[in-house]
Fold this protein.
Amino acid sequence: MFPENERCASKPFELVHSDLKSFLVTLYQKFKYVITFYNDYTSHAWTMPLRSKAVAIMAAKDFLERVHIQHNVHVVGWMSDASGDYKSDLFYQALLEKGIKIYQSAPRTPMQNGCAKRLGHTLMDKVESMRYQACIPDSWWEFAFAHTTHIYNRTLVAHLRWHTPHEMLKGEMPNIDHLRVFGCGAFVYLPATARANKMAPKLELMTYTGVAPGNEHNFLFMHSTNAVFTTAHAIFDERHFPCCPKNRHEPLENPFGRVNPKPTTDQPGNPPDDIDSDDDVEHNHGYPHPQVQDDDLKCKEPEAPEEEPIQPNPSHMPSPVPPPALRMPSPARNLPPPALQRPG
C-alpha cells in the first residue's frame, strides 16, 4: 500500500504525467505503441501513436513545444517511469535547459506514477468496450484510442466538481454535437472525383472511425477497400454496425415506454395479416408488450361487481289484455229498387 501522493498542481501544466503503452498487434498505420500525456491540474489527456520506443523522446519534445505555442506556458514538472521510456541523458539535459523539474518513479515501481497508469487503464477499458460493440478488427485500435481520448476530454469528472477537462483547460464549454457512436454505419456522400464513373451511386455505406484531427466537423470513415475516407457530409445510422456479422438494427423504444409499431408490409389489394384477429396480444409480431407491475396491481382500487338485471316475477304480472278485434263492415244487402208510382 503506497501513501497518497500529496503533490498536486495549482495551475495548468505545473505537473505533467507521461506513460508509454504497447499493443500486441500491429495497427492500421504500423503503430505499435501509444504515448499518453496527462495534465495534473485540468485532467486533460493527449495521446500519440508511435512506431517504436526510439521516437518516444521526440514525441515528448513535440508535446512540450506544442504546449508552449498553443497555450503560451511552459511545463514546470515532468513525471514519468524509470523503466527506460525516457531514459536518455540528452532528453534530461533538454528538460533541465528549459527549467523543467524531473520526477521519476523508482525502478520496477510504476505505482508511483499512478495518474498516468490510471489514465491508461481508463482509456483502454473504453476502447475495448467500443471495439467489441462495433466488432472492429484489432488493427483499428489506433482510431478507437484517439476517439476515446476525444470523448474523455469532454466528459464530466467528479474531482473537477463535475467540469470537463476541456473546460478546465480552455475555459469554455465543449461542443459535443459532432459526436457519433464509434463503429456505426454511415452513408457517405461521394463527390464526382471519387466515383468510379458517372453512373456510380453518390452515397456509399462506410464505417465511422472518429473525428478528423484539426476539425471537429470532418469525420473519418473506413471504406470497404480498407482505405480511410475523410468527409464532412454523411448520414449516420447509429444502430447499425457494418463490421458485425449480424445486422444490429433493433426497434427503438419511444419516450412513452412503448415499442414502436411494426411497419406495415401490406400491399394494395392484399388483406392484412391479422384481419381475422380479435386480440392484439395473440398477434404481437414478436414485439414485447408492457407488463403491469405488481405495484400497479396493489395501488389499483377494486372494482365493484357488475349488478345483474332483476328479472320480473311472472306470477305478479297482470295478464295481458288482448286488443279488441277489428269489426269489418257487413256487405250491403241486394234489395230490389223501389217501384215507380204514377201520379194520380
